[in-house]
Design a protein that fits this description.
By secondary structure, the chain is α/β, with parallel strands linked by helices. The protein is built from 11 helices and 12 strands. It binds S-adenosylmethionine and iron/sulfur cluster. S-adenosylmethionine binds near residues 30, 68, 99 and 123.
Length: about 325
């Protein structure tokens, strides 16, 4: 039973941990091409990440998602996954999962399954090789497709996350939905959020409202609204003719904060209790101050006690309002 309850009576059970700010891709909506990364000494060690996650689990978190940056490029990350699997074995943790760009899955899918991971999210915005190279700047589609195949072969359920991007993947809507349906994968669309400086890219120009996307889907398919929520902000529909499940994460056109049960930790040990707000506090200092967890527990409780009601992202005034300065790769998606 979680003892982490915020001022709006929301119980926090879900922790997302960014284990690195580094990435082998440079997606245009996420990073600028010449990103400056944090000095390695600022990052939490794998042992510190373990202690931090273990403290949250002791306080009632039962779902842990590892993200980044690209989590699978962090050196020795499998050691960390293996360590976390003890909390699955004890029953304290219900789910250990991962969000990845898929580039390293070919190598790690089997190890992830062995560590108790059963479901992963893979980010993939296009099935066109040239467009994939353009949107990720450094990525190669074939490698990611190989990774997805390896994941499924290893027994991992794969959900695809696609950022809805105007003039970019609008024309691939049905290609993407059919491709996922054919492979038994859920697909979730995400509205692009105003996070971090991305160089010369135009945020508003990237924004494709999921209301429009859904209307487009309904021109071809009957969609049945589903009640299932996976503890996250996605709303799901069942495509009547294919049976596929499609999710929509709509921070801009539909606010979901009232049911938010999650907090995020950066790779430097800052806790963000809202993805869309600047407010955060430091857990690295209390973590490093003493081998005893009393200071850490108190800092965690203090942070949860300040979880804001919600975010303020808003494009309705034809500006990217509510922008936050940090990149998604810093807080973890
Ligand atoms: N590198 C991994 C990946 O791409 O899945 C994990 C980290 S990435 C920051 C997590 C998710 O955030 C990805 O699905 C990515 O598409 C999404 N993302 C990044 N920047 C975003 C933005 N500005 N708005 C909406 N989603 C974004
Ligand atoms: Fe890397 Fe993921 Fe950001 Fe793309 S979205 S640059 S893969 S962290």
């Amino acid at each position: 039973m979680s003892t982490l309850v915020d001022p709006f009576d929301r119980t926090v059970r879900y922790l997302r941990v960014s284990v690195t700010d580094r990435c082998d891709f440079r997606c245009v909506y996420c990073m600028s091409e010449d990103m400056t990364f944090l000095p390695k000494r600022d990052l939490l060690t794998l042992e510190e990440l373990d202690r931090l996650c273990t403290a949250f689990i002791r306080l009632g978190v039962d779902k842990l998602r590892i993200t980044g940056g690209e989590p699978l490029v962090r050196r020795d990350i499998m050691t960390f996954f293996r360590a976390m699997s003890r909390h699955l074995d004890s029953g304290a943790l219900r789910e250990l999962t991962l969000t990845t760009n898929g580039s390293q899955l070919d190598r790690f899918a089997g190890d992830l399954f062995a560590a108790g991971v059963r479901r992963i999210n893979v980010s993939l915005d296009t099935l066109d090789e040239a467009k994939f190279a353009r949107i990720t700047r450094w990525g190669r589609l074939a490698q990611v497709l190989r990774g997805i195949e390896a994941a499924q072969a290893a027994g991992l359920a794969v959900k695809i996350n696609a950022v809805a991007l105007k003039d970019f993947n609008e024309d691939e809507l049905f290609t993407l939905t059919d491709w996922c349906a054919g492979r038994g994968m859920d697909l979730t669309f995400i509205e692009v959020m105003p996070m971090g400086d991305i160089g010369n890219e135009d945020r508003l120009g990237q924004y494709w409202s999921l209301r429009d996307l859904r209307a487009r889907l309904e021109e071809r398919h009957r969609l049945v609204d589903l009640a299932d929520r996976t503890g996250g902000p996605a709303r799901y529909v069942r495509v009547a003719d294919t049976g596929a499940r499609i999710g929509f994460i709509t921070p801009l056109s539909h606010n979901f904060c009232e049911s938010c049960n999650r907090v995020r930790i950066t790779c430097t040990g800052e806790i963000y209790t809202c993805l869309g707000q600047e407010g955060h506090s430091d857990l690295r200092a209390p973590l490093r101050a003493s081998p005893d967890d009393a200071l850490l527990d108190a800092a965690i409780r203090r942070a949860i006690g300040q979880k804001p009601r919600g975010h303020d992202f808003d494009y309705s005034r034809q500006r990217a309002d509510g922008q936050v300065s940090r990149h998604m790769s810093h807080t973890g998606g």
